[in-house]
Amino acid sequence: MPLIAVAQNRRMSDYVESIRRAGGEPIEVVPGTETAAQILSRVDGLMLTGGGDVDPTLYGEEPHGTFEAAEDGRDQFEIELSKAAVASGIPFLAICRGMQVLNVAMGGTLYQDIPSQVRGALDHSIREPRHHIAHEVWVAKGSQLSTLLADHMEDGETCHVNSRHHQSVKQAAKGFEVTATSPDGVIEAMEKTDNPFCVAVQWHPENFWRTGEFRELFQGLVQAANARKK
Question: How many CB atoms lie within 10 A of CB 195?
């Protein structure tokens, strides 16, 4: 069973259960205990999770009035994990804040507040119930994400997702392809095609572990991790 490092946040249960249901063994990792290299040397895959805002000074901006910091140490820890994971090619799934961290780590930028910075924005912050469908996303044909979610898409390019964020990727990092957007143009997924499995999504697929709508994302991570383990 492949070991998957899961970056710890305040609500771990759905992430952990999603990995277990996909056939992996989740291991929670926290800042200050090991270096990124030490962590990645003993696992087969990595998943970054949701949480507070990424410090905008890390991509050259002053904080917006809506800025809500993540737990102490998370930004630097997860940026180091992201850089090490991309460099090593270890299978990597990034969710919500995790996608934003990955993008910043690799040189991209963020919208700090979608409602005030994206004209005509949809409501991207529907908090309860956590699996509530907020809007559709348009998935790029031929992408790894499209292959993973093929059974859940209408016309081979549209699926419906929950949404719980006020920030998003603005300029995607060099080397990453945008593979899904919402109708208002907000970037909803990206991937690095020259890594075996490096997929990031802005919504929260872990909230659907009971019904399985996005289980293939976690299965894709676990299967890639298992192949690496062998």
Answer: 20
Measured at the CA of 229, the angle between CA 226 and CA 230, to 5 degrees, comes to 95
Active-site residue, from 96, 166, 188, 191: 96
Catalytic one of 124, 135, 165, 204 = 204
The whole-angstrom separation of Cα 177 and Cα 76 is 24
| pTM assigned to the model | 0.96
Catalytic residue status for 165:
no
Give pLDDT tens digits for 182-193: 999 999 999 999
Integer Cα distance of 25 and 79 in angstroms: 23
Share of the chain above pLDDT 90, in %: 86
Reply yes or no on whether 206 is catalytic.
Answer: yes
- Using one digit for the tens of pLDDT, what is the confidence trace for 56-65? 999 999 999 9
